[in-house]
Amino acid sequence: MFYKIRGILKEILPPNRIIIESKFLSWEIQIPFNLLEIFKRDFFEKEIELFVCPLLRKNEYLEIYGFLSKEERELFLKLNTLSKVGPKLALNILSVFTPELLRKIIEEGRAKELAKIPGVGEKRAEKLFLELKGLFGKIPVKGRTIPLEKERLLSEAKTSLVNLGFHKKEVEEILFKVFHEEDTLESLIKKALRELAPTLKEERPE
């Protein structure tokens, strides 16, 4: 999967497409709408680096979405895991809210603010809020700020451990206890297993 593209911003195509030239290739990339004027002002005919996410559409052509930060890219990926949020709505969300602001809105229960997103009225904002609440609530953070890409790692570790037969709530508590930001998926699972294994041993029949 593509992660980053670096090249010269050669064309800007409203409402939200740009063309980047990189060595022998030209990339057409869709960006959040709020970035268009910034790109016109600060990056036209200059080198730019974008965090990108390619998605294969139903009619089997590739669309590439680009972001200025890896946090935006990670949130875009997470939003696309939701049943009622596709690439278009995910891009609209990121055109209005930063990842940090969106998290704060969800944590504080400010569902009505989601109506600011293009194509989302007040009624749909309530339904979207419930989906986003589930997305941000997969791993308890207890007042601790965890980068979005690390939330994804925590979620993958939780799924692996639950699949091994451990209880979901206990897994979440242990992962929060042992987690450090430098962890890889493998190291995090190993640390969690060291905490969970004694419990598993006690519960086995004689």
List keywords for this structure.
disordered C terminus, alpha+beta, 47% helix, 3 domains, Helicase, Ruva Protein, domain 3, 206 residues, OB fold (Dihydrolipoamide Acetyltransferase, E2P), 5-stranded mixed β-barrel, DNA polymerase, domain 1
- Write the H/E string, N to C: EEEHEEHHHHHHH
Mean pLDDT equals 86
Count of distinct structural domains: 3
What is the C-alpha radius of gyration, as a whole number of Å? 20 Å
Spatially, the strands of the biggest sheet line up as 1-2-3-5-4
Spans of at least 5 consecutive residues with low confidence: 201-206
Q: Please write the CATH class name of the largest domain.
A: Mainly Alpha
What is the CATH topology descriptor of the largest domain?
Answer: DNA polymerase, domain 1
How helical, in percent, are the residues?
40-55%
Shape: globular
DSSP strand content: 15-25%
Number of helices: 8
The major β-sheet equals: 5 strands, mixed, barrel
Question: Mind explaining what this structure looks like?
Answer:
With 206 residues, this protein is α+β, with helices and mostly antiparallel strands. The chain folds into three domains: 64 residues, Beta Barrel (OB fold (Dihydrolipoamide Acetyltransferase, E2P)); 67 residues, DNA polymerase, domain 1, CATH 1.10.150; 53 residues, Helicase, Ruva Protein, domain 3. The chain contains eight helices and five strands, in the order E-E-E-H-E-E-H-H-H-H-H-H-H. Strand 2 and strand 3 form a beta hairpin. The chain starts with a strand and ends with a helix.
